[in-house]
Each structure stands twice: as C-alpha cells, then as structure tokens.
Amino acid sequence: MKLFAKYSRINVVATVIIFLIACIAFYFTLHYVLMSQIDQDLKIEQREIETFVREHNRLPENISVKDQLIRYQPIQKNITSRFTTHFIKEHGGDDDGEKFRQLAFSIKVGTQWYQATVSKSLEATENLSRSILIIAFITILVILLVTFLINRIVLKRIWKPFYQSLDTVKDFKVGETAPLQLSPSAIDEFQLMNQTLEKITRQAKLDYLSLKTFSENASHEIQTPLAVIRSKLDLIVQDESLTQKQSEALQAAYNSLQKLTRLNQSLLLLAKIENNQFGTIQSVDLKSMLEEKVADFNELWQTENILLHADLLPAVVRMNKDLAEILINNVLSNATRHNYNRGEISISLTKDFLEVANTSKQPMLNETMLYRRFLKSIHRSDSNGLGLSIIKQICDTSGFSIQYNFDENKHRFVIFFNAAKSYSDESKANQ
Amino acid sequence: MKILIVEDEKELSQSICDYLSNEQFTCEQAFDFQAALEKISLYDYACIVLDITLPNGSGMDILKELKTDNKIDGVLIISAKNSIDDKVTGLKEGADDYLSKPFHLSELAARVEAIIRRKSFDGKNIIQFDTIEVDLNEKTVTVDDSLVELTKKEYELLLYFISNKNKVISKNAIVIHLWGDDMDTADNYDFIYTHIKNLRRKLMKAGADDYIKSVYGMGYKFSLA
Asked: Does the CB of B167 have a partner CB in chain A at under 8 Å?
C-alpha cells in the first residue's frame, strides 16, 4: 500500500468519526437549547394566564394562533404542572398531526380548578435542526472530497522527486562510470535522502573500482611468476637424464600451469571486456570465421570420435573482431570439453542466430546459475568455470542475447545477434 | 650474434638466457631501464627481448631511444599486460613482434630467430637443417632437392622444430604455437600426434633421417640422429 493511501485511509476514517460525533453532539445540544427556549415561552404563557386570572378572576379568551394552542378543562383538584411532547391533529387532517410541546398546569378560577394546556408547535425548531444537520452533513462530504483531491494533487507533486530519485537509483549500475545524478528537491527530507543515496553509490563505486583494480593488478602480477615457472619447466625438460616418473610429474605440472594461465587470462579478459577495451566495431563474417575454427577443432573432435553436424549459412554481424573469435572459440571449446567419446556436436548458423548443441554426460543445467563465474561442473574438474561467463559477457557487450535449453539429451546454446529477438520468436517462425 | 634481454624478473631473464644461448647466440642481460639504455647505446644486438614494465622506466622509451639512434636491432616485446593497445603502440614504435607472458621458451626462441632472419640483409630466406632446406619466401620444403608436400600445419611445425633444434619442446607449447593460446584442449594433446606422424613420414619418405624423437610422452625433440 502506498504511503499516501495508508495515510489518507486513516485520515478519512478519523475525520468521518469526528464529524459524526460532532454532528450528533451538535444536534442534541441544539435540540436541548431550542426545547428549553420553547419551554421558557410556555412558562411565560402560563404566567400571563395566571396573571389574567388573578386580575379578572376568569379564564382568558381562548385565542389560538397557528403554532400555539390553549385549552381549558375543568378538573377536580390541583395538579402539578408538567411538560410533554405530543402529536396533535389539527383541522382534522388525516396525517399523524403536528408535533407540539405542551405545558399542562392547573389554575383556580373562583372555586373551580381548571387544567390549562398550552401547546406550541415544534415544526419550526424541527425544521431548523434538520436544516442545520443537512448543512453540516454536506459540509463534511465537501471537506472530505476536497481534502482527498488536494492530497492527491499536492501529495503527488510533493512525492515526485522521491519517485524520480527512486527511478534513477533503480537504473544505477555499480560498474558504470557516470556518477548518480539526482534532481535537487526543495524538501529537506528528500534532499537528505538524495544526499545519502549519492554518498552511498559513490562509495559503492569506489569500492567496486578498487576491488576491480585489485583483481586486475593481481592478475597482471601473477603473469610474471607464471612466466618464470613455465620457463623453468621448459629448461628442466631439456635434461636428458630425466626418468619416466619425473617426466610424468613435469607433464602434470605443465598441465596445471596451463590451467592456471588460462584461468588468469580469462579473468583478465573479463576485466577487459567490462572496461570496454574492445571498442572497435566492424563487420565480421561469422561464417568464414566459424569454418576456420571448426577446421581447427575438427582434429580434436576426430581423436575423440565426436560427430559434427554443421549447417552454416552466411552471417555478417557488427561486433569487435577479437571478441567474435573469443566467442566462437569459447562456444566450441565448451561444446567439446563437456562432450564424451563418440558424442555429437551440431552447429547451425543463420543470419539471425548461432546455435551450438552438444551431447554431454551432464544433466540439464540451471539457467539462472549458468553464467556465474566459477560455477563448477560436477563431472569435470578441468574447466575453470569462466567460459560461459565470458560468452555471456561478450553477448552483453555486443548486444546479443543468449539462451540455453536442454532437449533430446543435448545442451543447446543459441546466440541471437539481435537481442530483441528471442527463442519463442524462432519457434513461432518454425511452426 | 648477441641478444639483449631486458627483463627485471631475474629468474625469467636467466631462463631465457639459458635457453637461447648456444653456439650461435650469446645473451646479455639488463635488469632495469638505465642498464638497458646503457647497453643499447654501447653495442648493437641482433635482437632485443624487451619487457615493457621496467623499474624506473618503460620499455616503450627504450624503443623510442633505438629509433632516434637509428639502430636496426630487432625487438621482441614481452609483456605481462597482453593488451592490444600495448601491442599496437609497441609495433608502431618499431618493435618487430609481441609476445605476452607467460610464454614457452620454445615460442620465444622461434620468434627471436624469425626476427633475426628478417633483419639479416643477405636476402637469404632459406633455412638449412642437415638435408632439409626450407624456403621461407616460397614456403617450400626440399630434402636433397626433392620437394616435400606439407600441409600448412606440418610446415609450421617443421619451422618450429628447426628454430628449437636440439631442444625438447613440450606438447603444450606445440599446441599453443599451432592453434593459439585460446584453444582449450582440456589436456588432450593426442591430436598433435597425427601431425607429427605425418611430418615424420613425409620427411623420411623424401630421404631424410628421423629427426623427430618422442620424449617420454612429454614432448618432442628435433635433432640429428
């Protein structure tokens, strides 16, 4: 729920309750005041009648005006005066009659007791209270409506910088060089928030940068010791007197060193792609590049008895040439490394996509985890877990999209040269 | 012929020196910028193996110095950076080749030989090894004047062997030389055996001796029997 909605919900409920209580209280107070006013009038009338009787020793003429009725009735004895509220039918009308306030009191004329009843119509006061109540009610509604509208418009405007900042932060990437630019706000709280956000993101950028520089430097620094180790191994193998056992140990050392070298180079490559050091974009003929690479790999595949299905159509894409080579190399290496003896690799290239599928002992891969660095496969220890990260990174920088699926026991990677297109488009087209 | 090795990592410099030194080459070492400048101003070298990142200076400045002195020394840059920019700048500044660390000594030796060959002005572009003659311009191989038909990979392999004659070359180094550093072979080097086998068969059929010897499954050595 939005802050504003939550706030206005509480606000409206509270306002309605307060107004209702106020209305009821107002109504009763008003009623009470008007009633005592009428009772006062009735008492004045009583006094007038009593004065008249005392002076003239007879009952006054029965003069009834529209909203005032006076009646006399002979009674046996004295009664206490009391106020009542009645409905009295007038002129024999068929309605319930009008509401009257009545004062009954006894009066003695000579020796005869009379009960005098003075009634006053309540119509005017009822009308008055009703009108006042209606006016109050309409006022409440209008106030509520206006408050609601004002809140909507004003709050929306007030919160605008907040949502703007939020949008900017949403698009924030720690790897990008441009600092976070938030539009200034006149409201202190938002200004504080923006300042804090800018500070945090600046710090995050600095931390990220120093971490990146650190890993880059570390990778660079590792190159020289690697070179020393490799050169020393190259010298040791020159020794004529090496035994078979020593040779085997040396070969193992060579292999591990090669793995370490490749790992380090992969890390450097990833850093370089992230730093946009492969800026030059040109038209790359993927078909001829792929054919060349396939010829290289074919020798490897033949020794592993891997069957190749290749279906290559001309495809020219705009990308960095070095990255294109690395991409193809990685895709083919990947399909080779996770394959088995007498397995299959199928490659198809069209102007829209490159698809490489391979058989493998591995079950279906988890696509969300797929491109993470150092994702170790269970079956092999000789992959460094960076191949797919590099493929993904190259796709991202080149504006390609990559999709993975697993069917007919084949792992299939499809690289779409137009990131907007997706696999579903392709399957639709095939139907 | 003299080769200068400008490399601040003494152990690496020593390895290069040990590997390259033979009856044909002598090596000198410079471990920092000043020593390197001094040496190039005093002597002429057939080839300079130059590290870009040096204490107290950059290898690029040594390249510039060579250029202003009109020296014709061949230069092979070895760099830990493996950056395309460095490569382009280095080659533009007059370097002959670029090799990124870590490299195999056999690869370095092949590159150094190639540079020296290109720099020698006698116009002779023929390498001789015993009865084998390789014409680098024509890219042809003859044994006792009879032509040997080699594939591109076999030709490159032969050149690599001759540049590293009498040295054990690891399979790993051969793969990197022929297929590049990127090709991830997952420790499977069986496929180079086919090329070695074919090259040996073709050379011997043409009448050459068996120069290629397998060394404990670790690598190969190209030498006179």
From this structure: yes
**Same fold: B2-119 with B126-222:** no
- A contacts of B11 (beta carbons < 8 Å): 228, 231-232
Does the structure show a pLDDT above 70 at A377? Answer: no
What residue of A is the nearest CA neighbor of B215?
A: A247
Give the domain-ending residue among A141, A164, A197.
Answer: A141
Cα A393 to chain centroid distance, Å, stands at 29
ipTM: 0.88
A153 DSSP assignment: I
The domain over range B126-222 is classified in CATH as 1.10.10.10? yes
* Domain range enclosing A300: 279-430
Q: Strands (DSSP E) along A89-230, which ranges? A: 98-109, 112-121
Tell me, what's the pLDDT at A431? 42
Q: Which residue of B has its CA nearest to A227?
A: B102
Q: What is the Cα–Cα distance from A374 to A378, expressed in whole angstroms?
A: 12
Q: What is the model's pLDDT at position A375?
A: 64
- Tens digits of residue pLDDT in A201-255: 889 888 988 888 888 888 888 888 999 999 999 999 888 888 888 888 888 898 8
Per the domain annotation, does A358 fall within a domain? yes
Distances in whole angstroms, Cα of residue A86 to Cα of each of A43, A75, A99, A120, A421 = 17, 21, 6, 10, 85
Q: Determine whether the interchain pair A299/B173 forms a contact, defined as Cβ–Cβ distance below 8 Å.
A: no
Q: Does B83 touch chain A (CB under 8 A)?
A: yes
- Whether A296 and chain B come into contact, CB under 8 Å, resolves to yes
Q: Which residues pair with A38 in a beta bridge?
A: none
d(CA B60, CA B51): 9
CATH topology of domain B2-119: Rossmann fold (3.40.50)
Please indicate whether, in this complex, the C-beta atoms of A230 and B104 are within 8 angstroms of each other.
yes
Chain A residue with CA closest to B9: the answer is A224
Identify whether residues A238 and A283 lie together within a single domain.
no
What's the CATH number where A262 sits? Answer: 1.10.287
Q: Do residue A21 and residue A112 come from a single domain? A: yes
The C-alpha of B121 sits at a distance from chain A's nearest C-alpha, in angstroms, of: 31
| Contacts with B72 (C-beta within 8 Å, 6 or more apart), sequence order | B44, B119
Which residues does chain B have within 8 Å of residue A388's beta carbon, measured at their own beta carbons? none
B81 at interface of A, judged by CB pairs closer than 8 A: yes
Strand partners, A310: A347
Q: Has residue A360 been placed in a domain?
A: yes
Over residues A23-29, the mean pLDDT reads 86
Residue A427 confidence (pLDDT) above 60: no
Residue B30 has pLDDT above 90, yes or no: yes
DSSP reduced 3-state for A395: helix
pTM above 0.80, yes or no: no
> Tokens standing for A364?
């279906």
Same domain flag for A197 and A323: no
Which A residues 376-395 touch B at CB under 8 Å?
380, 382-383, 387
Q: Which residues of B touch A242 (CB under 8 A)?
A: 216
Q: Which pLDDT value is given to residue A140? A: 81
Query: Once rounded to an integer, what is the mean pLDDT over residues B90-115?
Result: 90
